[in-house]
Amino acid sequence: MTDAIQVALTQHRGRVAREGHQQLYAQRVTLPDGRRGTLDATGVIAREVDAPPGSNPSRGGC
User: Which of 17, 22, 24, 26 is nearest to 48 (CA)?
Assistant: First the structure.
């Protein structure tokens, strides 16, 4: 699954505050729980697209 959002990026470690556009990616997985069962989990990654030249694109995940 993918989606896009617009975010307000705050000033941080030399980065000026600005608006950013991020592409979101999500994946649902089933993992073994170590007790003969399973655990459902969803991972999400956010990656900035079209960052201004010379800046580090914002990204994150959980």
Answer: 22
Cα end-to-end span (Å), the chain = 15
**Cross-strand bridge partners of residue 42:** 28
Q: Are 51 and 58 in contact (CB under 8 A)?
A: yes
pTM of the model: 0.64
Q: Are strands 38-49 and 59-61 parallel, antiparallel or unpaired?
A: antiparallel
At 6-26, the pLDDT tens digits run 989 888 887 788 999 999 999
Return the closest-CA partner of residue 51 out of 23, 24, 20: 20
Which region, left, alpha or beta, applies to residue 42 given φ > 0 means left and ψ of -120 to 50 means alpha? Answer: beta
Distance (Å, rounded) from C-alpha 33 to C-alpha 55? 41
